[in-house]
TrEMBL record:
InterPro entries: DUF7966. This is Uncharacterized protein. Residues 89-108 are annotated as: Disordered. It comes from Halorubrum saccharovorum. Residues 99-108 have a biased composition (Acidic residues).
Amino acid sequence: MVSTAAVKRALSALASRTDTATRPAVAVIDEADAARADLRRAAEFVDADGLDRLDEAIAAAEHAGNEGAAKRGREARAAFRRFREVAADSDLGGGGDCGGDDGDERSK
């Protein structure tokens, strides 16, 4: 579950933002961190180029000396990598073949 403090940080960063073309690093990291708790949110984050934005946010946080945010970003990035590995393993042999012969029977 997302902490109240994390939500407040994200909202504060969004509210104080003046450059709408670039999201503040902490807001992106908060978004990624929150998305880890829900598969649908995680997929939406990835679909919205979230991983590229997360990599940029981690670099920006490190450059700004915000090691806490950078660490949370790296942890979120590692979680998204694990999600991708699990999904790839499931696609390769985790029951992905659901009766492929049935399709052959219908075409005969």
